[in-house]
Structure formats: C-alpha cells, structure tokens
Amino acid sequence: MTGAPPLAIQLANTTYAVRGVVQDGLRTTADLIAWFERVSALLPVESTPLGDEDLAAARELRDAVRAVARALEDGEPAAPADVDAINRAARGGPHWTELRTADPLRAERRRESRGVRDALAEVAENAIALFTGQTAGRVRLCGRPGCVLLFVKDHPRREWCSNKCGNKVRAARHYQRAKEG
Description:
Number of strands: 6
Number of domains: 1
Radius of gyration: 17 Å
CATH architecture: Orthogonal Bundle
Structural class: alpha+beta
CATH superfamily: Jann2411-like domain
CATH topology: Jann2411-like fold
Oligomer: single chain
Shape: globular
C-alpha cells in the first residue's frame, strides 16, 4: 500500500468495526477535531470552533461516501440522495465539482469560505474524484469478515483494507485447516 488513503476514504473509515461491532468514530465534535488533526498534512483547517452542525455535515458526507461506494461495488446505481449529499458538501467550498447521475457517474466542475465547510468540500471533491476518475470502480469494502473499512484496490489481488486484515484472514484459514486436518 502506498501513501495515505484518499481523504474521502479516511473520512468514510471513521465508521469501523471492533470485534465485528460497528463503531462511530465521529460521535462528538472532539472526535471531528481529532480527525482533522490526523489529516492536517493533507487538509489544513482553520482552527475555528466546531459545532454540532459541522459534526452533522461531516457524518452526512461520510455516510453518503460509504453508501455510494457500496452501491458501485454492488453494481447498483448510486442513490440520488447520497449523490445530493456529496454535492451539497462540495458546494461548501469556493469552487467545486458536482457528481452527475449518468451512466457512468461523471464529474462536472462548478465555481463560487467557511473553515470546516471548506475542508468538507475538499473531502467531497476527493470523493467525486474517487468515484469518477482513475479510481472509478476500484473503491472496495474490506473482504475480512467483521471489517467495514473502505480502500482503493490498487493491485489486482488486493482484497483487504490493510495487511493486518489480510494476515487475520490468512491466520483464520490456517487455523481452520489445522483444526480440520
């Protein structure tokens, strides 16, 4: 795996699983602040106080990215409500690209700042690029049972979000073979 995952994937992966139980990594504004600190090298944000509306906007974008990724992986059309949520977030910046529901999805450049909204607009821009650019069709859900993280399939044999998940699957297969043998 090379470099940090795209911003949209990093935001989407604030929903994760611990021992098969789905967790929300954006429960509070403090969680959102911590996420912005973790991605600050890719996404600098003015240090303005965050409110509940910022948290709600980040969650809405995260959930829409996850839903579009799942739909595309399943070969289904993206739900218009999820596309609208990504486009709404993208419009928060001084310039943006909108996702257009066509077959296939396509990007359309638009123009028009607000701290967190600018940052979320950047993440939305990244999501649009993921779903329509060179990585279109390569955003996947991790293949390890119990893991809900997303990744970009950058190698034909890649099935997991990380080496850790791949090792867990291989270890489970080995254990099962040893148990049966």
